[in-house]
Amino acid sequence: MSNRILIIGAGYAGMLAATRLERVSEPFTMVNKDPYHYFTTLLHEAAGGRGEPTHYTVQIKDVLRKPTSEVIVDEVTKIDRERRVVVGKSGEYSFDYLIITLGWVPEYFGIEGLKENSLVLRNVDTAAHIRNHIEQQFQAYLSDGDETHLRIVVGGGGLTGIELLGELLDWVPKLCVKYGVNPSLVDLQNVEAMPNILPQVSATLREVAVQTLTERGATLRTNTKIVKAEPGVLHVDGAEPIRAGTIIWTGGVRANPLLAEAGFTVDRRGKAKVNAYLQSVDDERIFIGGDSAWCEDAEGKPVPPTAQAAMQMGKVIGDNVSSHIHGQPMRMLTLKNKGTLASLGPEVGVGDAFGIPVKGVAAGLAKEATKVEYLWELGGLRLVADKTGEVVHI
Ligand SMILES: Cc1cc2nc3c(=O)[nH]c(=O)nc-3n(C[C@H](O)[C@H](O)[C@H](O)COP(=O)(O)OP(=O)(O)OC[C@H]3O[C@@H](n4cnc5c(N)ncnc54)[C@H](O)[C@@H]3O)c2cc1C
Asked: Per its UniProt entry, which superkingdom is the organism in (predicted)?
């Protein structure tokens, strides 16, 4: 029996699965939308103007360098489990073993008009779009004097929304200098339906985050539910509509819809059910990882949609596919929580690293350290040396 391994999606889970397969010289084909892998966890930096969007990418072929590793740039449009092929816009790719690591898409929770009337932070292109859009709003203000152009609303007070807000708080004053705009006219708001922002961090650190963000000029509107969006307007429950030049939605994620369309057993967020070895419960030769997987940890709690979970899952999948092929025992996912760090701008943050609460500059430095650790994991010293000048500021 042949063992063609196909990986779809070169995110955190896909790249780590691939590097593990390379380690044991297992040939594979990887299909990804772009020729590069991007650092999703740093996209807020790109959107907030800290670095050029291309600084947050690495060419896949610079990481997966073995001649037996084939990389194809194509967008997957269908997973045909019966025919054992993946259909892309430019071709069809057959497999014996399939690794699905297609990540996430925004979840709009059925809120009317939100998809059509908001920007999202999904990849380097959307990060660049947010950045250009905000600059265009400053230019529009200069031409018509309408202060609404200078209001930026970030919907969602989770990690993504708060990290983006922190980054914008740093960038906006620079834009004001560039365009000669009075900084007091700029209004940066975060709108969150729940009573608190950053549910991932402790109450004490959350207070630190609230204080840091509000002192720097942001308005945090918790207990505020978005009910409808129209061009340039967010309607919220129990308050006046918010008119804004920029509306960004970060409030929810769901799995790539291709999984449900392929008939996998999925949860309400479209994630496909896997067992402890990360095999699909519907097919033992299909492994699913990262934000595409519906997976529970040893205590039966759902594995959260985070990069650190995706990376750990990717490694388990790479090892298990190889073990399955060679009739060796597979290993279960035992998730190690390394903590959560939320940056609140280039130099400060809050969170915990391995259970130790950190805030301020220490948290900012700890976040920077995770970037180096990831580059090391992906490509060793060579990649750290290649990218640190561009991405990692230590
Ligand atoms: C701004 C931001 C900050 C974050 N910060 C943190 C953090 O600090 N810590 C943390 O742990 N998590 C963080 N997260 C969450 C984390 O980034 C995700 O959980 C993680 O990216 C999921 O990894 P993945 O491998 O499942 O998918 P992804 O990394 O999303 O990769 C999916 C890949 O599949 C490709 N793809 C998608 N559809 C197709 C298709 N149809 N055809 C071909 N290719 C396709 C994509 O281009 C991409 O390369 C953050 C997320 C955001 C947006």
From this structure: Bacteria
Residue 277 or residue 355, greater confidence = 277
Residue type for position 387: K
Please identify every residue annotated as catalytic. Answer: 163
What pLDDT is stored for residue 391 in this prediction?
Answer: 44
Considering the domain architecture, whether residues 130 and 243 belong to the same structural domain is answered as yes
* Ligand 1 centroid distance, CA of 303 (Å): 15
Q: Which residue has 């259970």 as its token pair?
A: 355
Domain that holds residue 274: 5-33+74-106+253-335
* Among 251, 250, 248, 296, residue whose Cα is nearest residue 271: 296
What confidence score (pLDDT) does residue 359 get?
Answer: 62
Distance 176 CA to ligand 1 centre (A): 32
So what's the pLDDT on residue 229?
A: 98
Task: Output the pLDDT for position 247.
Answer: 98
CB 208 within 8 A of CB 359: yes
> CA–CA separation, 243 vs 74, rounded Å?
39
Cα-based distances in Å from 50 to 180, 209, 339, 367 = 20, 20, 24, 15
Q: Are residues 239 and 278 in the same domain?
A: no
Dihedral sign (CA 255, 260, 265, 268): positive
CA distances from 230 to 16, 115, 117, 242 (A): 40, 10, 6, 10
